[in-house]
Specification:
binds magnesium ion, seven-stranded mixed β-sheet, nine-stranded mixed β-sheet, hydrolase, Rossmann fold, 700 residues, binds cytidine-5'-diphosphate, hydrolase activity, 25 strands, 18% strand, alpha/beta
Length: 700
Amino acid sequence: MESKYMATTRGENGGGATSVKFSIKRKHEAMASSPIMEKKIHLTAATTQQVRQTIAPVLLTSKRATIEQHQKSLPVFNCRQRILKELELNDTVLIMSETGSGKTTQIPQFLLHAGYAKNGMIGITQPRRVAAITVARRVAQELAGGIGDTVGYTVRFEDVTSKRTKIRFLTDGVLLRESIKDRLLLKYSAIILDEAHERTVNADLLFGIVKEAQKERRRQKLGSLKVVVTSATMDIDHFGKYFNCRGMYLEGRTYPVRVMHAKEKQEDYVHSVLVTLFHIHRTTPRNHDVLIFLTGQEEIEALAHQIRQLAKVDLAGSTDLRVYTLYAQLSQAKQLECFAPTPANIRKVILATNIAETSITIPGIRCVIDCGFVKEKSFNSADGLDVLKSVRISQAQAWQRTGRAGRDSAGTCYRAYTKEEMESFPEATQPEILRTNPTAMVLQLLALDIDCNNFDFLDAPSEEGLRSAYKSLDALGAIKIGSVSHITPLGRQMVQYPLDPKYSKLLLTASTFGCMEEILSLVSVLSSDHVFISNSDKNEMASLAHAKFQSKHGDHLTLLNVFNAFLKTEKPKVWCHDNYLNLRSLTYARNVRRQLTEISTGMDLALNSSDDIEMLKKCILNGFFENIAVLQRDGFYVTVSGNIRAKIHPSSVLHGKYKPNYIIFTEIVQTEQTFLRQVSEISIEWIKEIVPFVKNIPTR
Ligand code: CDP
Ligand code: MG
C-alpha cells in the first residue's frame, strides 16, 4: 500500500531521478557576480572520514588538537589570510559561502586573533536566538573558555556576557536596540552581520545603521568600524553596490545531492512526508539521518508524535528510529538534543522549521524531505495587519534545503512538490521589510531620529505601508506627524520594550487603568506561543483539564488564569503535566515577565493590581483598538481595520454557539480560512468611551 503513496510522493518517472550537482549550480550563480574567487577545495573520501571522526569528539571533549584539526578542515580556514587582508584594506567585506564552511564560528576567531578586540568587542548578529546561543557555546568551547567569558551572547530577555567578553553573539534585534542608545556602536571594533540573506527587517535596518556609523566614525576620527557581511546565498551585486565594496566567494565542500520530485501534486504534504520517511527508513542504511522541513511547531509536534507511534507498531522493527524536533519556541536544552550523535544502528530524524536551512548545521544528514512551505508573516498595507500564513518557499530556499543533504557525503533530497510546481515558486524570498507591517520599524527609526523617508534602505518598503505605519503610530500617541514627524515622550518609552508598539502601549497605560500586574502577565504569556497542549490521543482529558481555567470573558482572561495558577504552583513540572499545559512556554513567559517588570519599574510605572475584569478589558482595548471585530448576520466577524472577514479560531474559548457582538483579538491566522485568535468580548459602549477616535465601525 505504501509503495503506491511513494510513487505519488516522489518522482521516479522515466526510471531516473534528476541528479543535480548542487555545488555547481550554486557556484555558477555566485561566480556571475563575484570578483574574487577562492580555489575549490576538494575533499577525498579519506578526508571526509577524518572530518566525521573529528567533529563528533569535539562535541564531547574539547581537546586542543582535535579542535585545531576540525578548524583546519573547514573551507574558511584556507581563506583566513585573504579575509584579514581584505578587511585591512577595506572597511566592509562581503563573504559568501556554503552553510557549514565555518563563517559563523571561525571568522570571529580570526578577528580576535588578529587583534580586533583590542579596541572594542567583536559583535556577530544572528537572525535567531537558537543560532546565537548554540554558536556562542560552540565558539566558547573552541576557545576553551566558559560561556559568558571571552565569548558570550545576548538575546532578547537573556544576557550572558561579562566585562571580559570580546566576542559577542547577539540577535540582530538586540544590536538594533543597542544602537538606539549608541548610534555609532562605539562598543564594537568589528561587526559581523551574519546570515545576511535572511533579510530580516532588523538586519536590513542594521545594514543602514552600521553604514552610517562607519561614515560618522571616520568623520569624527573615532576609530574605524569594520563590517563583515556573511551569508550562504546572497545577491552579491546588490549588497556590493549598497556597501560599495567587493565580495568574496569561498567554495565550500559539498557533495552531489540527488533530487526527487513528487510525480504529481500532493494534496496533503504532511502525509507525503510521512510516507516518504518510512520508505527511506526501509530502504537505506540506519546511519543515513533524515532532516524534514515543515512549517511550524504544531505541525512538527503532531507529525513527531505520529512517527513515534508508527515506529512503535511497525512490525518490520522500526523502533531503531529516534525523532527530534527543532523550532524557535523550543527550550535551549531541547534544541541542542538533535546535535548529539546517535548510535550507528539508530536513525536520527529531525523535524525542523526553516531554522535548519542555513543558520544551524547538524552533522550526519544524508536525506532531506522538503514539504515546500514556510510560515511567513506578511502584511497588507490596506488593513495594517500582519498575517501569519504558510506560503510556498522560494527556489533559493528549496536549493538551500536540498544542500543540507550533501554536507558530509552524497545525499538525497525528496521534494513533496512537482518540478512544475517548483518552477512557479518565486526565485528568491522577498525581504521581510517588503512584506511585514513597518510600524515597529518606523518607531524604532524615529527613536534614532531617523525619518524613514531619508533612510538609506537596501530595499525601501512601500510608501503606502509607511504611510499607514505613521498613521497607526500617531493614533497610538507614539509620534506626532508634521512637516517633520517626531517621536513623542510616550513613543520613546514604547521603544524601551522589545515588543510590538501595541503591546508597549498596553504596558505603558496599564497603571492608569490600575491593572499593571495583570497586563504584565498577559503580555508575557501572549509573547509565548502554545500554552495549551492537546494531542489527538488525550484530547478529552486535556479539554477537561483546561476547562477549569476558562473564562467566559474570553481567551485573554483564560490565559491569565492559567499563568497566575502557574506562578503560584510549587511543582510546575508536575502541575503542567497534569493540566496538559506547556511547561516550556510558561517558563519562558515567566522570564519575559521578569524582564518586562524590570523595564517598567525602570520607567517608574506603578505596579498596581486589580480584579476588575471590565477595567482590564478596557485596558486591552486601549492598546488594541485596531483589532476590533464586529459580528455579522452570517456568523462571520468583520475587522475594523481593513474589513477582513474572519471567524473565531476553533481553539478559542469563545468558539461555539454564543457569539459576542463585539470582540477584540490579538492575532489573525490565515490557513484555508481566516481566523481570529485570542479573542475577548467587549462592548460598543467601551469603544465610544475608551477609543472614541475609532471610526468606521462596521455595522451589524
Ligand atoms: O556559518 P557556517 O554555516 O559557514 O558554518 P559554522 O556554523 O561556522 O559551522 C562550521 C562547522 O562547525 C560545521 O560544519 C559543524 O561541523 C561545526 N559545528 C558544530 O559541530 N557545532 C556547532 N554548534 C556549530 C558548528
Ligand atoms: Mg553560519
